[in-house]
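Give me structure tokens for this 192-residue protein.
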Amino acid sequence: MSKLLITGLKWLLGLVIAIVLALAIVMAIIGRENTWAVLFGAPPVDSIDFATLPPRAKANSFLLCPVDLCAESRPDRISPDYHVAVESLAAIVRKIVESTEGLRNDDRARPEETGTASSGSELQWDYIVTTRHLRFPDLVTVRVLDLGNGKSSLAIFSRAVYGRRDFGANQNRIAAWMEAVEVAVALKISGD
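Here you go.
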């Protein structure tokens, strides 16, 4: 019985090694990020409207939103109001977000957009961010909002493409961005 068990474990170990080697070869040929698209499908192309964003079923995303914007989906964190013009906040946010390692513009064609809160807005941008080692893609939508009277705010929806959990990656990314935005806005206000 023990010889049969040992033989079975050796066979299983050999199979696991063969699968890992095959995956490594595929990754070497087509790249880590492309491997995930081949195995699990390309990331979806979705137009995010924060006002009608439905509740999320999986725990692999993070939503930052002002109090009154995300009416259908509960934000994970409430976005503060900033005492800077929308153009200034947009410039600050884009500079911080676009300096993120592994981030690129998601300029894939979107389905027809409707309304002023659609991703076609000049104050809303879509990005793909890949994780550092395995290059798993996350989709990020950023929107800067004009609150009037020289005030502005922002909404960010960051979500993993694959899996049910993201181990806090999206939350940590947004927290780091928000910290940098708050510092940059404070410096802008004190410099005016």
